[in-house]
Amino acid sequence: MLNFFGRKKPADVSARGGLRDMLEGFSIEVMPRTAEKIEDFRAILPKGTRVYIAHIDGTPIEDMVATAKRIAGEGFPVMPHFPARIIADKATLGDWIARYQGEAGVEQALLLAGGVDTPKGDFHSSMQLMETGLFDKAGFKRLHVAGHPEGNKDIDPDGSDRMVTEALRWKQAFSERTNADMAIATQFCFEAAPVIDWANRLRTEGIGLPVHIGVAGPAKLQTMIKFAMACGVGPSVRVLQRRAADLSKLVLPFTPEEFLTELALHRANHPDFAITNVHFFPLGGIKATTDWTAEFGASPAARAVTA
After folding, report:
1. Which residues fall within 8 angstroms of residue 176, CB to CB, at 6 or more apart?
2. pLDDT for position 151
3. Contact between 68 and 80 (Cβ < 8 Å)
4. In 3-state terms, the chain is what percent helix, strand and coil (to 5)?
5. How open is the CA angle 200-238-186, to the nearest 5 degrees?
6. What does the record give under GO molecular function (predicted)?
7. This prediction's pTM
8. Domain spans, the chain
9. Tens of pLDDT along 193-228?
10. What spatial distance separates the first Cα and last Cα of the chain, rounded to whole Å?
11. Average pLDDT score, the chain
12. Which residues are CB-neighbours of 195 under 8 A, at least 6 positions away?
């Protein structure tokens, strides 16, 4: 089988083994409408896989909680999104936390600003959500925050990552003064070298949180380009555009094999590498992503580690 780059899968045993190790304990993101298409997550995910539930603006909280309850009932730790800019106020935040906890037993969350430009209520950043103290009061054991290896022009319009990095320093300090286990979950990327440079620079900036790197699951190249442009992914888009210029590769599905193999080989040579886990955005479908991970040993029969 050919990979995204039109080459045969690496035959090097160490490379394949490194990729398998890299996939150990991967997580995956779903939405209520995409989760509905999966009859039983136990048939496609390794035991213990963390499932994020993306909260898109306009999705009723009832649908979010029902999805969390269903997936948790199948035995998976659930991590719903809490997008600050669509939460009206502290009372609403408290209500959401109580619903997730009371109905689905949720005890972890991804906190992020959210994809809307103008806040709909009192919050505009994940730091404000954290400062309420409600997650700590409710006994949430794990909080993840957003990371942007290629920067975020909504936060740093000048193209730098000064404000993004400063926010991560704040979150690092928050993790040190609270009981929550924290990690950085990033936007999806396609090019390994800039990601490695960014992850290494975090450590020089005093940010020691583990990184769960965002990865787009298998999908058509056209689909990848569409989502990358919509989500503001920057330099990595060049990788896709170069492939799109070769008409012979337009018909090939995108797979993240080469990207993840490069990260895995770097991690094998640098055990203190900041990237510890892989987080999948199944843009080509949940089943397509889980089928691909199963090729490398991350099957329902495998034991997952939810670090």
Report:
1. none
2. 57
3. yes
4. 45, 20, 40
5. 40
6. oxidoreductase activity
7. 0.86
8. 14-294
9. 999 999 999 999 999 999 999 999 998 766 666 655
10. 32
11. 85
12. 149, 189, 213, 263, 275
Which residues, in sequence order, are bridge partners of residue 181?
A: 142
- Listed ranges 1-15, 77-91, 151-165; the one with the highest mean pLDDT: 77-91
Residue 3 has pLDDT above 60, yes or no: no
Report pLDDT for 228. 57
Dist. CA 184–CA 187, nearest whole Å: 10
Tokens representing 148?
């942007």
- The yes-or-no verdict on residue 63 having pLDDT over 80 is yes
Mean pLDDT along residues 18-25: 92
**Cα dihedral 32, 36, 42, 46 in deg (nearest 10):** -50
Contact 68, 104 (CB under 8 A): yes
**Residues 112-122: what's their mean pLDDT?**
91
- Where do we find the tokens 């199963």? 294
> Which conformational region is residue 48 in: left (phi greater than 0), alpha (psi within -120 to 50 degrees), or beta?
left
Pick the CATH number of 14-294 from 3.10.129.10, 3.40.50.2300, 3.20.20.220, 3.40.50.300: 3.20.20.220
d(CA 296, CA 285): 18
Is there a contact between 190 and 259 (Cβ–Cβ < 8 Å)? yes
Residues 6+ apart with CB under 8 A from 158: none
Q: Residue 49 carries which side chain, given as an amino acid letter?
A: T
Q: What DSSP element (H or E) covers 100? A: helix 90-104
In the DSSP assignment, the letter for residue 265 is: H
Tokens of 19: 């990729």
